[in-house]
Amino acid sequence: MKICYREQKDKRINARRSFWKEFLIIFGVVLICSAGQVLIFNRQMLDQANPWIMALVGMSYALFMGLIVSLGTRFIMYTGFQRPLTEIGQAARKVAAGDFTVHVHSQRKDNKKDELEVLIDDFNKMVEELATIETLKSDFIANVSHEMKTPLAIIQSYASALRKEALPQDEKQEYIDTIVEASKKLSTLVTNILKLNKLENQEIIQTETYYLDEQLRCCMLALEEKFDEKNIEFDADLDEVSIASDESLLEIVWNNLLTNAIKFTPEGSLVKIELRNAAGLAIVRVSDNGCGMRDETSRRIFDRFYQGDTSHAEEGNGLGLALVKRVVELIGGTIVVESELGKGTTFTVTLKL
Length: 353
Fold this sequence. Notes:
Blueprint: H1 19-41, H2 43-48, H3 51-96, H4 115-162, H5 169-200, E1 208-211, H6 212-222, H7 224-229, E2 233-238, E3 242-245, H8 247-263, E4 270-278, E5 281-288, H9 295-300, H10 320-331, E6 334-340, E7 344-352
Parallel strand pairs: 2-4
Antiparallel strand pairs: 1-3, 4-5, 5-7, 6-7
Enzyme class: transferase
GO molecular function, one term: protein kinase activator activity
Subcellular location: Cell membrane; Membrane raft
């Protein structure tokens, strides 16, 4: 959107820049210089002619030059300084009103940048970031609503069915179990949202020294029942590694990565976890030979509420890996994903010891 600067004067402006003061100063300087120029270069003519006529000519010349230079200077100041600032001000008011489509155009045609051009660039970047935040907020609300709507509808539907007196006992139990599972899903969703919100605002971590390999073994044992349900073979190759970090936060990472590996690995397949101590870094790899991901899914896998399976056939709310990403960043580590469709996925977490 192009910003038009010819608008009604801002009512907050109750003072104007000292245009006449600037004009008179420039005009006076040019006047004196022009008068001196006339006297120097026309000394011989001044001796021969009527001094009053020469004075009048010199004064007229000086006045003309002073006026031209002053107006030219004022025009340059207006086009190069005042007008761009007016555009930025009008754009800022549009942004404050919720319009994030505004864009202040560059004033230079030579692609060079002065202080004003840098200010314009920074302003445009700020507007783009605000637009992104607004989009994320809208998506967040829409996704939360969607994720809550399904289990709530299930609870409402099955609770209504339970009101019927003629239901067999086994059918009643099935309905109750379904309501419990939907309630658990809602509880997990709310818990993850609260965790993520807390982590977004957290900057300080509680550091303690502990054995990372022991923590990984404990996480695997806690998920043993889920591995057995799908008859998944588990291969752990762990170096003994002592790390100074936040144990409770890293537990979120390992639980989510291992749960994801179980979820997307076919029955009877293999999940592998490795821990290596390399040059002062702890490197953890969680691999599966499941369905894998497309490139687009790999790029967006850490986004909030993003789910590669848009059909929602797999249980989840798209917050687990967003939590993982935030925890790893908070601790000062990195996480990358490598995946090939139909061949499996590997998450690699690198942490400072």
